[in-house]
Write a structure and sequence with these properties.
The protein contains 1 helix and 9 strands, in the order E-E-E-E-E-E-E-E-E-H. The protein is mainly beta.
């Protein structure tokens, strides 16, 4: 009476997932030499030469790429040459890479054949001025324990 035996199947309602915005790629081509500071949220492909600082989401230094300076990025992949400092969550050194300098990373991948010279640290900072902690004096601990009693 109240219900109908001829029910139509209801179509599933799906919400479209938002598409991720495409990552912008900036290319410094082979034969181009640039100096200064390059900063942005996109990715950078360096096949030419760069002297200075690059701050971006991801940096790839191609086999013909050469950089002298500082890099700050979420991901760094090197096939070419870098002299300077890298600060990145993930650093990949391919077999043709040659890196001279300090590398601060969370994850480091080094392929056989990569040339690396410098200091590598899983911390994002490396304090070279920090003095070693003074040794603990057992006499001081005993004196404090005796004073507490």
């Amino acid at each position: 009476m109240f219900g109908s035996k001829n029910k139509q199947p209801q179509a599933e309602v799906t919400t479209p997932t938002p598409k991720k915005a495409p990552t912008m790629l900036s290319v410094i081509a082979e034969g181009i030499e640039i100096g200064g500071e390059l900063q942005g949220a996109g990715d950078v492909q360096l096949d030419g030469g760069f002297t200075g600082t690059i701050k971006c989401h991801a940096l790839t230094i191609g086999q013909t790429g050469k950089m002298d300076g500082k890099v700050e990025a979420e991901q760094v992949t090197i096939l070419g040459y870098l002299k300077g400092e890298i600060r990145s969550k993930k650093v990949r050194l391919k077999n043709s890479a040659h890196v001279v300098g300090d590398v601060y990373h969370d994850v480091l991948e080094v392929e056989a054949g990569a040339k690396i010279e410098g200091r590598y640290s899983r911390k994002m900072t490396l304090d070279t001025k920090q003095k070693p902690a003074a040794p603990v004096s057992l006499a001081a601990v005993k004196d404090n324990k005796a004073a507490a009693e």
